[in-house]
Design a protein that fits this description.
The chain has 179 residues and is α/β, with parallel strands linked by helices. It contains six helices and seven strands, in the order βαβαββαβαβαβα. Helix 1 links the parallel strand 1 and strand 2. Helix 1 packs parallel to helix 2 and helix 1 packs parallel to helix 6. The protein is globular and about 45 Å long.
Amino acid sequence: MKIKRFAVFCGSKSGKDMVYEKHASDLGKMMSENNISLVYGGGNKGLMGTVANAVMENGGKVIGIIPEILMQWEHGHEGITELIVVKDMHIRKKMMYDQCDAAIILPGGNGTLDEMFEMLTWNTLNIHDKKIVLLNSNGYYTHLIAHIEMMDSQGFLYENWRERLIVCKSPEEIISCLV
């Protein structure tokens, strides 16, 4: 199956390490170069805004899906191809999952982890079979990866988690393993 759309889950803040923004920008540019559209949370701040702007600046297509409650907080991005305002977070996540061919997880906070683990859970339950990629920018997710390995070694996972979650260190690696 040719991948046409990535759902990108990431922070509405930029974080403290400049590599996070660089990776978000590089990923957006590479997506456009490979004719892959972006489906994301619809904000214009932080890494969300960076990846969306990079896709748009390079001639790509961006679909933002944002719940009403976050229109002010994350500042709905008016400069993208399409901004869809929905009632709540549950509708947002479901629409993002339904509209993507693969999910990319960039650095972020609680919301990003919530989205990643929900995608993983749905994947494990065979609700979908979409590839999920964790971008471990400059070691950001190293501790989380160690915890997932602990969950596995202690018998809490049903299968090899590495078959469900691909870990990459750069946007180039993401593109090369999915495109």
